[in-house]
Design a protein that fits this description.
654 residues, mainly beta, 22-stranded antiparallel β-barrel, 5-stranded mixed sheet, 4 helices, 37 strands, 5% helix
């Protein structure tokens, strides 16, 4: 495999070198990524499929990060326990662990977590969110089978600050403060955020027996709250950048319905997570070489308390996980002649996890675990014609974890046509090693399985993009077909109503179509995203062969329409998720869900704004059930979602 991958890159470069020379003023993908703050031309970010979300466009609507990501086609949000609960993303039918999340260039995925919990990342400090699907540029160290979510926090544009306070249903309260100033030779930014909710609400419980209404009852969702706090400090000048962040997430783990929410039943468990991260980096130029380095440290403490043993494994009342990770990254880029822009990146990371509590017995008495990884990337952006309208971008990667390594590769092609039309295609091989969470559990609801193998897979996509005028509006549209075939896919498999285990379920096939389109008129704006997807377990000689993979809805879509007046704007947003399976055996199905949100924004003057609205107007959330299918269990774990939510936010810039 190593020889094939190296030959692939050499052959591509040799063939392309024989093509006509390009013009000296051609801008190639990646050249402006480091220095530019805004990307109106998405082709400068990647020759593949990428969507940019700007939180400021939904400022004051009390959307969390998962809410913002719901407008990205091909991306599905998995909310296991409702708002504020553990929430992860699936990209083009991937598992959540196959999605790499970066914050200011630092990988947020930990070996001690299944995936990045998106509900704990505050959006108040975010300038933009980039979502890469299919082809992954070399500046991201993980050859992610699913995709990359790249979060870029705010940079100082001018001295001053902003204060925002808000309230909404279910006892939710929010407050955010940011402040920027010039400090020494650079700029300093500070962000403080707090978000809390008691999460309690009433809903109608059919006792998981829809055909026997006699046992239905009104239930109260209790012990369902959360409290999130975080601080971000950033300083940077022309060469140096330093970053420090702290966050604490206190989460109530409510017991599952039905039945467990009746009077006299214990409330549930608590899961508290505290994290500190530090980062220091420098960039400089040496001739044609633009390069930099970055060193990062992260410390996380996670405590699980279940005095009544209501959620986790039997006999497990308290578990504590301490994680520390160091990583070092060096990257660079250089323009070779007029037609080539070469990028490279290398990363080393070491993570250690110490465990205390009742879970140690399950882990065979072992209480210390380490994970060491290397990654190397080399990418070449090549103009295939004199105008730079036809590009080829090959990339080759080496990933190693705990002494075992694998090559992977990718190739993207893009061709600009007339009148704003362009064609894009990419393909390649990707891989991922199992992390410590999948191998050793979480001390609560995930059992250990130290025998997991690496995931591998192939992916391909082809898309048509359009940018320009359409229907009298400024329009940006993209229609993309995608296909992927994972091997040794790692999936979470429920082994009891209380907990489950990660297993290699072997092979799968996933394919679908994404549509993304935005229209901007003088007074109106509209944004549409639609995803159609089919997924199938292809494991031979297995009872799951031919079944649909869990958490992969066939249809999902979002439509947002905004009407602007002088000082007022009103908006409506509809979101639909088709029903989908909860388990890999296709015995538990999740109901479909359509929600409608309405609201308005009023500017008293340019520095003071009021935003009010209601989400889930028709109160559909609490009616979403997990329903047994065929020979499925007579009862299922069910965590009701909150429904109709009123909110109000006041924002003052100073």
């Amino acid at each position: 495999m190593k020889v094939r991958a190296l030959l692939f890159h050499l052959v591509v470069v040799c063939l392309i070198s024989a093509l006509p020379a390009c013009a000296a003023d051609v801008t190639l993908p990646g050249e402006e990524v480091v220095s530019s703050a805004e990307y109106e031309d998405l082709s400068l970010l990647s020759p593949g499929t990428v969507t940019v979300v700007k939180p400021e466009e939904m400022d004051g609507e009390q959307k969390n990060l998962p809410d913002l990501l719901k407008r990205v086609p091909g991306l599905h949000i998995i909310e296991a326990r409702g708002r504020g609960g553990y929430t992860v993303a699936s990209v083009r039918g991937s598992t959540s662990s196959q999605v790499a999340v970066y914050i200011d260039g630092v990988l947020a995925n930990l070996g001690s977590e299944a995936a990045v919990d998106l509900s704990t990342i505050s959006v108040s400090d975010i300038q933009r969110i980039e979502v890469y699907r299919g082809y992954i540029p070399a500046r991201f160290g993980k050859a992610a089978l699913g995709g990359v979510i790249n979060i870029v926090t705010k940079k100082v544009e001018k001295a001053g600050g902003s204060l925002s306070v808000g309230a909404s249903s279910y006892g939710q309260r929010q407050a955010s403060l940011s402040w920027s100033t010039q400090l020494f030779s650079g700029d300093f930014y500070m962000g403080l955020n707090h978000d809390r909710s008691n999460g309690d609400f009433e809903y109608w419980n059919d006792n998981n027996t829809p055909y026997t209404p006699g046992d239905d009852y009104k239930a109260g969702r209790q012990h369902n709250g959360y409290r999130n706090s975080d601080i971000l400090l950033k300083w940077g000048d022309a060469n140096w950048e330093a970053r420090a962040a702290w966050k604490k997430n206190e989460r109530d783990l409510a017991v599952a319905a039905p039945g467990a929410d009746k009077p006299g039943v214990p409330e549930g468990a608590d899961l508290d997570t505290e994290q500190i991260s530090l980062s220091l980096g420098r960039r400089q130029k040496a001739g044609i070489l633009d390069w930099g380095w970055q060193v990062n440290y992260l410390d996380q403490n996670k405590k699980y308390d279940d005095p009544d043993n209501t959620v986790g494994g039997w006999g497990e009342y308290h578990n504590e996980y301490d994680t520390r990770r160091w990583d070092f990254t060096i990257d660079g880029s250089m323009r070779l002649g007029d037609c080539h822009f070469l990028e490279f990146m290398g990363n080393y990371a070491r993570e250690r996890m110490d465990v205390t509590g009742d879970i140690i017995t399950t882990l065979g008495g072992i209480d210390k675990f380490t994970q060491e990884s290397w990654s190397l990337q080399l990418q070449d952006s090549i103009a295939l014609d004199a105008a730079g309208s036809f590009l080829a971008v090959p990339v080759i990667r080496w990933n190693e974890q705990d002494g075992e390594g694998k090559f992977s590769w990718g190739l993207a092609l893009s061709k600009e046509l007339k009148n704003g039309w362009s064609l894009h295609a990419s393909g390649g091989k990707y891989n991922r090693a199992p992390n410590m969470y999948e191998l050793y559990g979480d001390g609560a609801t995930v059992r250990p399985n130290p025998d997991l193998n690496w995931e591998e897979g192939m992916q391909f996509d082809f898309g048509v993009h359009k940018e320009g005028r359409m229907f009298g509006a400024n329009n940006r549209s993209a229609l993309t077909f995608f296909w992927k075939k994972p091997e040794n896919l790692i999936e979470y498999v429920m082994t009891s109503p209380r907990f489950g285990i990660y297993q290699n379920i072997a092979d799968a096939k996933i394919y679908g179509v994404e549509l993304e389109s935005s229209f901007i008129w003088q007074k109106w704006e509209a944004a549409l995203s639609v995803t159609w997807m089919e997924s199938e377990n292809k494991t031979e000689d297995d009872y799951r062969q031919g079944l649909t993979l869990p958490n992969r809805p066939e249809w999902e879509g979002l439509l947002r329409v905004t009407r602007k007046f002088d000082k007022l704007s009103v908006f409506a947003e509809g979101h639909y998720i088709a029903d989908n399976y909860f388990d890999d055996a296709a015995t538990i199905k999740m109901d479909d869900l359509f929600t409608l949100g309405l609201g308005f924004k009023y500017a008293f003057h340019e520095n003071l704004r009021l935003i009010m609205g209601v989400d889930d107007v028709f109160d559909e959330g609490p009616d979403v059930k997990r329903v047994p299918v065929g020979n499925g269990p007579t009862r299922t774990m069910w965590y009701p979602l909150q429904g109709r939510t009123f909110y109000a936010t006041l924002t003052w810039d100073f």
